[in-house]
Amino acid sequence: MPEGHTIHRLAQDYAERFSGRTVRVTSPHGKHLFLGFRDSDWVHIHLGLFGKVGFGDAPAPPPADTVRLRLADDTSYVDLRGPTTCALITDAEKRAVHGRLGPDPLRADADPGTAYRRISRSRTTIAALLMDQKVVAGVGNVYRAEVLFRHGIDPYRAGRDITPAEWDAVWADLAALMREGVRNNRIDTVRPEHTPEAMGRPPRVDDHGGEVYVYRRANLPCHICGGGISTADLAARNLFWCPACQKR
DNA sequence: GCGTGATGTTGAA
DNA sequence: TCAACCTCACGCC
pLDDT per residue over A76-101, tens digit each? Predict the structure, then answer.
């Protein structure tokens, strides 16, 4: 569920129900959500791998025992379950969180050059760098796999072998894909000409919710070249790529 | 009912 | 590099 687009979408959904009422919602950055109370107190939420947010209309049912935080007013409620972080923090603590995050493709003030300066100096793989929130904030396992496929980049290529032109294209693509993710509340990365309908293929079976090229498609035929999609463990996460389409 | 895995991060070894 | 943490849906008995 939660990559950066989910958090930006949640910020919109919280605001729609509660802004100007009981709570205000601002400033998602990457995968961190901050609920603001009178400009100086914040509830810092990070969903981690399992966290979920569920909205509902009043009257709210009695909270199940796994609900960690409920906000409610006379028309709406929202329940938080399974977060990695749910803490009341100060403005200074909030600034510290922003300070340790890289630029977020979903924020208008983000500078992709900040990320490229790190990437271009690193011997680490581009796959690992894209998942490092200090380098880029908001990208997770799905967008990582998909954006590398869309740009024909082998996930094991070192950061310092990524050209400025490649990074500009990857960044612009992330911004566009994630913006669409916020709008639709799901991850779709397949270009119109490669959709199942366009290709005369059977529709997607995977249950993660979107139309993708490689994520969780191990051993299935590549939508473009027909070769088998590969999978491997990289830093304890599942990596997916097409060895024929993605070059070093 | 039980085992498994998942779109994430931290901190110890 | 690895365990720990948090939840829940799914497959298989």
Answer: 999 999 999 999 999 999 999 999 99
